Amino acid sequence: MNDQNKVPYSHLESLFGLSGRVALVTGGNGGLGMGMALGLGRAGAKLAIVGRSEQKNARAEGMMREEGIEAVALKGDVTRVADVREVIARTVDQFGALDILVNNAGISRPTPATQITSASWDQVMEINLKSVLVCSQEAARVMKGARNRPAKIINVGSAYSKFGGSFVAAYAASKGGVAQLTKSLAVEWAPKNICVNAIVPGWFETEMTAPLRMVPDSIKSIIKRTPMGRFGLPDELAGAAVFLASPASDFITGVSLWVDGGYSVA
Questions:
Q1: Domains of the chain by start residue, with CATH
Q2: Does 171 participate in catalysis according to the annotation?
Q3: Which of 23, 25, 99, 138 could be disulfide-bonded to 37 (CB atoms 3.0-4.6 Å)?
Q4: Catalytic one among 9, 160, 171, 263?
């Protein structure tokens, strides 16, 4: 490429930079959530991360501040409307706005389908699906789509949004719901200048997949199915989050962006 065809760096910054934007990431104190939060912060966003563990929150906040990211970690339960309202209010009070919401908090309770209890099913649905609605509802009340820019809501799905699997009936159902909720909110809130999209991770090295990665046959099967031949790292989800949060995606809504090393197309 000759110099005449190079894209000016300042133009790339205007496309993908998040300076002046405020992001809230649920479950941002570890795993994929922290990977995305760090990416948003490195792109210039001010950050609020939400988690239930004060110890993990403090560690995550310290890491971000060491990188020069303006960040605050807030304790809260995303299944409780009162907690969500308080977290959003504190974010707006501290940073003056809320432009980006990443609904990342989630759990998995691997159980044979015949042994799933009502309590276990409800817990998975509360955290993985209901919290996405509650957090999105409360965020939408304060998002302004300011400065001629749409606000952004990014939901985190799963490969089980598309594929079935043994022992994950509740988890797969909840993540399938996230995919459909994303589409519905995208249609309804586009006139409000809010873009709603989803990131669909494949297999990543996280605490949630740690038990699976202890089973050699499972690892071999996943890697064989994944064209890139490995599990992803949490930092490798950051680019998708920055893209969907940035001006580069201002005319994109209702999509599910797969980040899976090719797993879904193999």
A1: 18-204+235-260 (3.40.50.720)
A2: yes
A3: 25
A4: 171
